[in-house]
Q: What sequence folds into this?
């Protein structure tokens, strides 16, 4: 199975990866054709060295049905999806792999293994999710966070969500990411707690509690994404019309926004879990092979950026 790569924004990420050595990656339960093909194709592109974790019979049956040759790949036995998640996390902790990749298991199964207090991959920072989106109508890669993990984040949670996204954008080559903190309106009001959080986050960035990015908010979506809309409302902002990151007020808003971009604006999306010990590739079971490859490229760049910071 060969995926068409094309010439879009994701392909610019792949170009950045060409000079880097592939990274050992624990793939948890790749027992569905797209999940398995994504890992194999990413390997052929020199992004990862997949370690396939799951029931060997199921993995081989999936490969045979999809016409995929697995002779070059290591398979680590795990009886079922829960065991696959736990064993994949063990491989990370043992140093056998440096990236974790979701296969065809449920997200909550993988996340349970990641956040486990004994044997998980927690750090001092809150774990969050980011969609990395190639939107045809937007001029650069756009990060949307958090649309998958933190349901109703507190202000303190948003600090970590924001910092995780900034670090991700820097790893992708953005020197000083611009963060638009979204709300329904662009004015601060006690009737909308998201606007107060946005104002607090901006002040926290001024005081060095969030570093590496340029923050502005609250911004309604139109003001965040369009300079003209911002100008019409008299908003002067270095972020408006040019954000690298859209910080959603809660999971529902972030999830709806990302899926609207995918299904209405025909955006491609990659998925990453941030704030764990290693990059975690978190894609939907319905995602295309192209999306999985893009996620592998992002994870590779993040992994090398983490190594450079150590």
A:
């Amino acid at each position: 199975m060969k995926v068409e790569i094309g010439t879009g924004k994701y392909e610019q990420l792949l170009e950045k990866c060409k000079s880097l050595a592939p990274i050992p990656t624990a793939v948890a339960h790749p027992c569905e054709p797209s999940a398995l093909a994504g890992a194999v194709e990413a390997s052929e592109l020199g992004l990862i060295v997949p370690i396939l974790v799951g029931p060997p019979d199921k993995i081989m049956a999936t490969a045979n049905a999809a016409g995929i040759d697995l002779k070059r790949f290591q398979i680590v036995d795990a009886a079922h999806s829960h065991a696959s998640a736990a064993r994949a996390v063990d491989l990370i902790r043992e140093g056998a792999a440096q990236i974790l990749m979701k296969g065809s298991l449920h997200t909550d199964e993988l996340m349970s293994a990641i956040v486990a207090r004994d044997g998980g991959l927690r750090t001092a920072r809150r774990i969050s999710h980011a969609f990395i989106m190639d939107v045809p109508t937007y001029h650069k890669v756009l990060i949307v966070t958090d649309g998958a993990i933190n349901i109703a984040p507190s202000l303190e949670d948003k600090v970590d969500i924001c910092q995780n996204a900034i670090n991700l954008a820097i790893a992708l080559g953005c020197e000083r990411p611009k963060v638009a903190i979204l709300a329904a309106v662009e004015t601060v009001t006690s009737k909308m707690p998201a606007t107060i959080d946005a104002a607090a986050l901006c002040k926290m960035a001024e005081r060095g509690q969030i570093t590496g990015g340029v923050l502005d908010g609250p911004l309604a979506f139109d003001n965040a994404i369009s300079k003209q809309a911002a100008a019409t409302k008299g908003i002067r902002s270095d972020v408006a019309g040019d954000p690298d990151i859209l910080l959603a007020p809660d999971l529902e808003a972030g999830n709806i926004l990302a899926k609207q971009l995918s299904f209405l604006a025909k955006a491609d999306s990659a998925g990453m879990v941030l704030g764990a010990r290693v990059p975690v590739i978190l894609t939907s079971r319905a995602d295309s092979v192209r999306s999985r490859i893009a996620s592998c490229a992002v994870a590779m760049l993040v992994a090398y950026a983490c190594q450079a910071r150590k």
Notes: The chain has two domains: 1-122+276-310, 125-275. The longest helix spans residues 289-309.
